[in-house]
Write a structure and sequence with these properties.
The protein has 346 residues and is of the alpha/beta class. The chain is built from 13 helices and 14 strands. The longest helix is centred in the middle third of the chain and has 21 residues. It is globular and about 65 Å long. The mean pLDDT is 90.
Length: 346
């Protein structure tokens, strides 16, 4: 065990200084040759050509060995603690693209601050302004509704992305769902850390600080990683947004759970000709999971309604692509409608 610890120290030498820096909050390695360092709440890229694939894979295997965890192609996920006190989330191929390794180091606080230091450690200017938060939400909603009513699709969809609203694209295969999703992904600020959960590499993510996570359909590939397992991993990888390729099977519960746990601004696709059908399909998929089956229909409908902000139907009519009637939650709310009404319309 001591031999493994010494080997791990040697392998981590290129980032040892950054990890030891007390200002470091997270250090993320998304692929060989570089790392992203988060200090003061901001990520910055650092080139590190010595971090090749073999070295990174070795770090993952050694870190797992310290806690008697097998790490490799058959067990590509590992969450562990290092002797330095850092927490490490490992993702290896086939749960990430070939030739890449995802390592996320997080530094837990090793001291207990006095309560009297609260104002010095936190921005406390808004802690008792819940009413202001509501006012800001209403102002954001008013701006989006104005664009919605004006029919300014470009500004409206861009505004949804910047406001971190959850968007569901629906339509038949070949209708343009993934294409529009890719377009709007490019509208996400480049400063954000993006994680994707996919079963095939279809999304295009232009952000430098991003990780593509891959799950296997029906456990047919080596590793047998599920979308739900990847979600649990993302919670330890410091994402700003988590994007799902398509809602189906266990990914439906992942989507609902993910957007309800602090990562708004998701873009994903689902089959369904229009908004009511898409909502019904999402409801049925979630209800069909072991987790979703434990909820009553009304409760589940309310959960889905609070998670989905917009449903965008797309069609391909003989080569002509079109965006059909968009369901926008804020528009529905001002008309006194809820998600359950959309389910009944399916």
């Amino acid at each position: 065990m001591m031999h493994a610890a010494a080997q791990l120290d040697f392998a981590l030498a290129p980032v040892a200084g950054a990890l030891a820096d007390p200002r470091t909050e997270e250090l993320c390695i998304n692929h060989p040759g570089e790392f992203w360092l988060r200090q003061g709440g901001r990520f910055e890229r650092h080139a590190a050509p010595e971090l090749d694939f073999d070295m990174l894979e070795g770090v993952a295997i050694l870190a797992g060995a310290l806690r008697n965890q097998n790490v490799g192609a058959e067990h590509p996920l590992c969450s562990t603690d290092l002797p330095t006190g850092h927490r490490l989330q490992v993702v290896l191929p086939p749960a990430v693209p070939p030739g890449t390794v995802s390592l996320t180091f997080r530094r837990p606080s090793d001291s207990v601050a006095a309560l009297s230091d609260l104002a010095g450690r936190y921005d406390t200017s808004r802690w008792n302004r819940w009413d202001k938060r509501r006012e800001q939400r209403q102002a954001d909603s008013a701006g989006l509704l104005e664009l919605f009513d004006a029919g300014d699709a470009v500004a409206f969809f861009g505004g949804l992305v910047r406001a971190r609203r959850n968007i569901l694209f629906c339509g038949a295969t070949g209708g343009g769902k993934t294409t529009l999703s890719k377009t709007l992904t490019s509208e996400i600020p480049r400063t954000e850390r993006i994680l994707t959960i996919e079963d095939a590499l279809e999304l295009v993510v232009p952000h430098g600080n991003s990780v593509r996570l891959l799950y296997s359909k029906g456990g047919l590939t080596m590793g047998g990683v599920t979308a739900d397992a990847l979600l649990q991993a993302t919670l330890r990888m410091r994402p700003d947004r988590v994007l799902l390729q398509e809602l189906r099977d266990d990914a439906a519960w992942v989507y609902l759970n993910e957007v309800m746990t602090g990562h708004p601004g998701s873009l994903t696709t689902i089959h369904g000709a229009d908004a009511p059908q898409a909502m019904r399909r999402l409801f049925n998929l979630v209800k069909g999971t072991p987790q979703g089956a434990t909820y009553g229909d009304d409760t589940l409908a309310a959960m889905i309604g609070s998670a989905v902000d917009a449903i965008v139907p797309l069609h391909n009519d003989a080569g002509t692509y079109s965006i059909r009637e968009v369901w926008f939650a804020d528009d529905a709310a001002r008309r006194g409608e809820v998600a359950a009404d959309l389910l009944r319309a399916a």
